Amino acid sequence: MSADLASVPKRGRPSRREPIFESALRLFRERGFHATAINDIGADADVTGPAIYSHFESKGQLLAEAIREGCFRIGNALTEALDVEGLSAEEELVALVRAYVRVALENADMNACYVLELRHVNSEQRGPLKRAAQRLCDLWHEKLTAVRPELGREQADTMVQMAIFSIVSLCMMPSRIDREALVELASQQVLHGLLGTDAVPRNV
């Protein structure tokens, strides 16, 4: 994931980028990309609108880099979850699902913007982001078919897409459920759909 995404240029001081990312993604999600002005983002992040251009060349690049940052967080979370010796194939799938659910909910605005606003990113920047998403799907496919080798390619891919979309859908609407309870509920539901059993391990 990092090789492609690293090609997206970074500008400005890292200390100011994070609040700009957070404000931009929240406003893009709430108002839409076109309805959100640079000055709106600056005001929300307590940065002057024009000063944002010292960090990003355009509003589109800001969106691309914010999504890119979210992709790195997802990749890091999954790598850490799977970097445990001695896990069975089923335990690896459980670890993958739980880690993805947690990091997706922690970056809900990014996931919502990826689905709703990625079309506003230019093709040069959009390509690496879409390839990163495909590699994520491939990882899910690998872990699922290690547990359920009887699944055909199309069936496994469809199940993976359904699982990921169900998680992303939680990022697109607020929930009053406690975060930990929501992570547990979503993980159990996704694992039940993938494994086709009620005997889902609760801890890895």
Compose a concise summary of this entry.
The protein is mostly helical and 204 residues long. The chain is built from nine helices and no strands.
Q: How would you characterize the overall build of this protein?
A:
- By secondary structure, the chain is an all-alpha fold.
- It has one domain: Tetracycline Repressor, domain 2, CATH 1.10.357.10.
- The protein is built from nine helices and no strands.
- The two termini are 25 Å apart.
Tell me the total number of β-strands.
Answer: 0
Average of pLDDT: 86
Structural category: mainly alpha
Residue share in helices? over 70%
CATH class wording: Mainly Alpha
Termini, distance in Å? 25 Å
- Total individual domains: 1
Instruction: Name the CATH superfamily classification.
Output: Tetracycline Repressor, domain 2
Largest sheet, in brief, is:
none
**What letter string, H or E per element, gives the SSE order?**
HHHHHHHHH
Name the overall outline: elongated
Radius of gyration over alpha carbons? 18 Å
